[in-house]
Amino acid sequence: MPAQRRKQTYKPRVLPCTFKGCRQLFTNNSGLKRHVSSAHQDFGAGLRLHPLTGAAASKDLGFYAGSMPAADGPDLDWVEAGGGSDELWDPPPAHVEHVEADSDQIGGGHDRKHVEIHSLLDGIPCDLNGDDLPPGTSPLVQSQAPVDDYSPFMDRSEFELADFFYRKVQMSGGRIDELMQLWGSRDPNPPFADHRDLYNCIDAISVGDIPWQTFSVSYKGARSVNAAGEVPGWMDSKYEVHFRCPRKILQNQIGNPDFAGEMDFAPKRVFGKGGKRQYCDFMSGNWAWNQADIIATEDASTHGATFCPIIAGSDKTTVSVATGQNEYYPLYISNGLVHNNVRRAHRNAVTLVAFLAVPKTDREHDDNAKFRKFRRQLFHTSLNFIFQSLKPGMTTPEVTLCSDGHYRRIIYGLGPYIADYPEQVLLSCVVQGWCPKCMARPDELHSSGTRRTHKHTRQLLDSFDLNTLWDDYGVVGDLVPFTVGFPRADIHELLSPDILHQVIKGTFKDHLVAWVGEYLGLVHGPTRAAAIMADIDRRIAAVPSFPGLRRFPEGRGFKQWTGDDSKALMKVYLPALAGHVPSQMLQALSAFMDFCYLVRRDVISEDTLVAIDVALEQFQRERIVFEESGVQTSGFSLPRQHSILHYRKNIQLFAAPNGLCSSITEAKHIKAVKEPWRRSSRFEALGQMLVTNARLDKLSAARVDFEARGMLVGPCSILPATTALVGVGVDLSEGPEIPEQPSGFDKAKAKEMVLIAAEDDDGGPAEDGVTAQVTLAKCPARGYPGQLEALAEYIQVPQLTELTRRFLYDELNPGYSSSQITSDHYPDIISHISVFPSAIATYYAPSDYSGIGGMHRERIRAVPLWRREGPRHDCVFLDRDPTLPGFRGLDVVRVLLFFSFKFQQVRYPFYIQLLQHFLRYEQLLAYQEQWEQAWALSNEDPSKHNGIINPLPGQQGLHNGEDVLRDDGSYYMGGVNNGAGIDEVHEVHLRAMLDRDEPIVSEGQREFRLPELVVEMSDDEEELANDHMYW
Question: 833 and 788 in contact (C-beta within 8 Å)?
């Protein structure tokens, strides 16, 4: 008998997420709650989980418990989470000065920051005639189509299907035809007749329609012939450049309602703690302010206008190596008004504006001087022509609709250009090997030179011949940068910092990592160097699974590095090298990584600039080890390392560099070039790629338009589905309120959620207004005892009950200490104990992928079995001394367990910390001094040796194998040379261990080696140690 299929009941997704911009739909309240708590939780009012301090802190027993009471509430009443608010989404008022919360604060302190708006070009709203409006005037009402008009689509479902087929799954025309035929077998009226009908419908979208244009460029100079008497082909060829009007693109970006509240319509100066400047979004830099000063001084009629910088970027990319090195040269454009996080998020703030020509010739003429000059001239001529439509608006303001619904007078100006070093050389008309921003010679790039400017270059052109310009000043004298033809533009100033190619890929990957490999080969020879590199790979591969850390199962032996590869390797590379390279080399790498993480911050203060200078100075001082060891004998006149000397100035000009990084344009390559090329027939693919990009832009513009009119809120079938649910008596009172009309969702607020993120969420950027905290997981773990005494026995921590009671006493009696009374006075804990598999930590991490305020969140796990591989107990930092800078005041610990209980209607969350077996550097130094004292006395009185080596923190050495439990609860761990002390033979062995690269292992003993420190334990001693330590 054939197997019977049990058909599942279709459950429509009728519950929409009520947070702005989120399009997720759900079938029930449970799924919606999990999504909101995971993706949109507001940590601002949440609970902070702290490690135990004071008398209840029992380091000697090997763990901590931490807790902090919270307000009452249902079920998980110790968690509080705020919902969304319309106030978070409204744009700030337009005024000269305002004060807002300081996003550069850890833990949400009371410090606030002061924002000063430019007093002349302050972005005052105006009417259609350009006349300023009084303060507080509402935006002009825009004429819109009816809320049920989805033209050219019949209805919403037809639009969603078109977007799904063409953009989301990129379905081919043949597949669309096949699907419509299958659809027609069940419904005689499928949404589209075939793929042509779908394409025609998308092409008919009117919003976002910016047609492609084409112009051609050809060589007009003197012809030359080769040995065969033939004119090179490139001289007779016409090179086509395809582009769209940049003025219309910028108007669409500025008027995009999706950017409301995320644009600055005037230059600003941000001041944080102590009145110190902060550099964050692009308009907070000095360049935009200085440009506004120049514009306002030159023309008083521009007062009240908005200065809009034009950010451009270009980068040649290859789409397929196997089919003949198909190269394309896209040019992108963005505006400087949007915040950096918007530009990085690719939310239509970066648009493809052109495909530049890529002239090619045969090998005979590839290095020809005329061809090289023509190739450069073609590039600058193309850029000059493309940006011509913007030139009138650079001196005369144009009334433009903005994202907040107001009209403003916009005055444009060429802004930063995003490019890697070869592109920067081409843009600035500078000789390869020279710096495009300063006059430093190629052999003197270890220091900075005087600033390059158009004015200085013109003086050089008037004074010297082409050869002198090339050899002595690095100027290509027969070329003119395209910026010369535009007002207030100087390409040498406009070249933006490029973290990806200058810092991450350039200095770190191409220089430092490569130099380490060369050093190992020079010092140890090929065979030994290969063994050491294998050990480094093993260390990298041994990194445990943890949020924010990428695992390299095969080490760093991948062939093609990406920027993400380099950033991930940077986090684990330094400890992997320890013991294999000199300490000065490690210090050079450490200083450079400090520099890298500092310049990657979203908010850079004046204090951060000082720290950047310190890190850069140390890196330059320590990198000399690569020259002294014979690796980099030619010195450090390297263009990409030289570029980091300009970062302080560039940050002050353009604010945080991560808003102008070439990673933005490289990521755009995927959607604008690579995917459209893969969808093409490969024959004359560029024309098909233009059509694909035009259709994608139209679909995107249509979605923004429909959303602005409130036509895409909730699922397509929300009204019928909701009616059906209510008709059968389903209770929707606990879910989000569903309005009668879809447009009602525009004002819906997200409800307060008390649930923490779903268990498969490892973290990510946190929203603005977050405070540093830790919150437990939503769901308790199963299989653990529910009573405290039973739990202590289950996890083999007999002191757990007493420690928890002591801690609770200290919490309830802040003026007293539990150490002054007996345990009989501690409160009894009789409530149910809940154990949790994880917790979410939210903290300030501006160098990582973070929210607007630099806040980041990660999940900390403590589970007995993780992905069927074994237990997982994540490491955390314990704030031992907040007065010490950086990591010096932190201890590294591992989490054994998360749990919570109720006492007097208050929920107390705890975590148990494993024994501190990670030593701080100063502890190692102190312990090394003790070893040296032992060696010094080794020939005097061996009987004294056992008392000389003091135990590590929380431990004590075994004397002659003695097994003793101290009164304070700590156990002896290991002895020196099996408790036999140090004699002359042992002294020789110890010195040999420190002199050799690999340690000596004695028979019957196991050896633990730390930097400059060796502790040997017998098998019995190791067993004793393992019995009383939680690893």
Answer: yes
